[in-house]
Write a structure and sequence with these properties.
It is a single chain. This protein is mostly beta strands and 114 residues long. Helices cover 5% and strands 18% of the residues. It has one helix at 45-50, and strands spanning 11-16, 35-40, 54-57, 98-101. The strands form 2 sheets. A two-stranded antiparallel ribbon has the order 1-2. The longest helix is centred in the middle third of the chain and has 6 residues, at 45-50. The chain is rod-shaped.
Amino acid sequence: SNWSACTVQCGNGTRTRHISQVATNGGKDCTGPPTEICIITTCTATHLSALGATAKQIGDFPGRPATLAIDGSPTTVTRQRLGAHKCASTIKSRNPWLQIDLKAVYLVSRVRAI
């Protein structure tokens, strides 16, 4: 049969197939692995929280915890509309930081901070 869908939407998973062709006329049975590794590399913030990713920052601005950075909510924020959107935000600091632990190794192609 064809390969099944990958078991994950992001990251490393597996997919399976069933070999249903039986040998006839003295031929050999079909062989091959029934499972294989699949790697989904197009991950979005929606998938990050589902993967168990964690986020922390120097200090949470009230109502804007670090977990908002991985909750999957698409936001477009301008300076005038900042109060209308829920993005992660740190307390005022000379050296602010945000740390996201993806729990695995991924190729990150883009990070956007505003």
